[in-house]
Design a protein that fits this description.
4 strands, alpha+beta, 183 residues, 5 helices, 2 domains, globular, 49% helix
Length: 183
């Protein structure tokens, strides 16, 4: 019989419903122009903040604007590294998830660190053939990379459906939490 609590050597992380608010309080004032975007799953917390766009005295082309934004991002990354590590350690201790950082500056988005979580799956031959075709065509270097490509593609094309599904799952979780009304 399958016993969920003995499956694997990892327990479920604690709820992180308050993580965006907690992180907003933990991030030093002045780092970002607005409250950072916080994305949480069972393995990782991704924090993405917005940086002020560099002020340029002259009219610049798109490549120069992007270079200025990358310069702003690089400076932020270097100047905040030690403090970001300390904040991440607090978050990791509190929520038992890896922490990743990124920023947006104008039209440039850069993630400094991201967590790659291994995912086990069993695929039948038709699914393996899809992955092998992507590898043979040079779309991906391995089955693992091909599977990640497929997941990204589905996510891009079904964003609204996935959003609706997550909302419905949240409603179910809330009903479970409240329990039946015994009145």
């Amino acid at each position: 019989m399958f016993d969920r609590k003995h499956w694997g050597n990892r327990s479920e992380p604690p709820p992180a419903d308050d993580a965006p608010a907690w992180i907003a309080g933990a991030v030093p004032d002045g780092w970002f122009t607005a409250t950072p975007e916080v994305v949480v799953d069972r393995d990782e917390i991704l924090i993405v903040g917005s940086l002020p766009v560099p002020t340029l005295d002259v009219e610049v082309n798109e490549a120069e604007r992007a270079a200025a934004e990358r310069g702003r991002i690089s400076t932020f990354r270097e100047e905040t590294r030690d403090r970001r590590i300390r904040v991440a350690q607090q978050i990791e201790h509190r929520y038992r998830r890896k922490v990743s950082w990124g920023v947006v500056c104008g039209g440039t988005r850069e993630l400094f660190t991201t967590h790659s979580a291994p995912v086990m799956t069993r695929l039948r031959q038709p699914e393996r053939q899809v992955l092998d075709t992507l590898v043979a065509a040079g779309v991906a270097r391995s089955r693992s990379e091909a599977l990640a490509w497929c997941v990204r593609l589905v996510g891009e094309h079904t964003d609204q459906w996935l959003t609706d599904l997550r909302a419905a799952m949240g409603a179910v979780d809330e009903l479970r939490r409240r329990g039946p009304d015994a009145a």
